[in-house]
Amino acid sequence: MLNKIKNKVSKLFNLPAKILVNMGFAPNLLTFLGLLFSIFSGILYYFKYILYAGILVLVSGLLDALDGAVARLSGKTTAFGGFFDSVADRYSDAIILTSIILSGLCDIFWGILAIIGCFLVSYCRARGEAAGIKKMSIGIAERPERLIILALATFLEVFFSKAIYYAVILLVALSHFTVIQRIHYVWKNLR
């Protein structure tokens, strides 16, 4: 069911992606800008400018969604682009979650487990695809879902203390559950 929703949502990015292609934006530039917005978001989390941090998380996520769409529409999909996007995403996840830990918005235990979970979700996909498994985008907590959870919790934090704290715990549960889903999927397909 989630894949059907993802497919419908990804089609919404076609129009803005076409506009960006016509303006001459390169996919790797969008990836870099997404990383830059994540860095700024991390800085804002650290200094507890919560609302602005949440806005920048959403902008970063939007750019992350658009870089792939722009690459496909412009015919500029490359192996390096996919690699660069993946590395930038890991840096973004680490920067944002580390800033949340350092700001005291969540404790170090849950924060580190969230970072590990986010990294392992992507690692499982990469290793599964390297082993020849197709359609590895399974699971309930891929990067877009994690960013949405974090952004929503950030906006809620403005009104309800500890919203980010509980969202990080939710990210831990969902990301590690997704890792288990992917391990099972690879095991089933490699038997």
Structure description:
This protein is mainly alpha-helical and 191 residues long. The chain has one domain: CDP-alcohol phosphotransferase transmembrane (TM) domain (Four Helix Bundle (Hemerythrin (Met), subunit A)). The chain has 8 helices and no strands. The protein has helices at residues 2-12, 14-22, 27-46, 50-74, 79-103, 108-130, 143-157, 163-190. The longest helix has 28 residues, at 163-190. The two termini are 26 Å apart.
What topology emerges from the helices and strands here?
Layout (H helix, E strand, L loop, with lengths): L1 H11 L1 H9 L4 H20 L3 H25 L4 H25 L4 H23 L12 H15 L5 H28 L1
Helix pairs in contact: 2-4, 3-4, 3-5, 4-5, 4-7, 5-6, 6-8, 7-8
User: What fold name stands as the CATH topology?
Assistant: Four Helix Bundle (Hemerythrin (Met), subunit A)
Tally of contiguous helical segments: 8
The total beta strand count reads: 0
Main sheet: strands, sense, barrel: none
Helix-strand makeup class = mainly alpha
CATH class: Mainly Alpha
Q: What overall geometry do the principal axes of the alpha carbons give?
A: globular
Query: Based on the structure given, which CATH architecture is correct?
Result: Up-down Bundle
Which consecutive residue ranges, at least 5 long each, have pLDDT under 50?
none
Write down the domain tally.
1
Give the averaged pLDDT, no decimals.
92
In N-to-C order, the SSE pattern is: HHHHHHHH
